[in-house]
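== Protein entry: sequence and backbone fold ==
=== Local backbone shapes as whole numbers ===
==== Amino acids and backbone structure tokens ====
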Amino acid sequence: MVACVSMADNNVAETLATLQYASRARNIRNCPVVSTRSLASDAVQCVSHHIPGCTGMLTRWGLVFLQNQGLINDVVCTARP
């Protein structure tokens, strides 16, 4: 840290405050901690939880689309929502 101080009499109060701040800032100690929990793994877990439901929905929508196009008849969906 660089603390700018002045020797002029009219800046004594500001110089003293600057030196006190610099002293307090110098005593700050950081203790970094490595995070063991990753946001990416949380996202993967969330998405993988929803994949079976999405697969079932897409299957039903695809079958309904094919039925509406007249390409298949009498579709029975047994997949759960």
Observations:
- The CA atoms of residues 10 and 67 lie 89 Å apart.
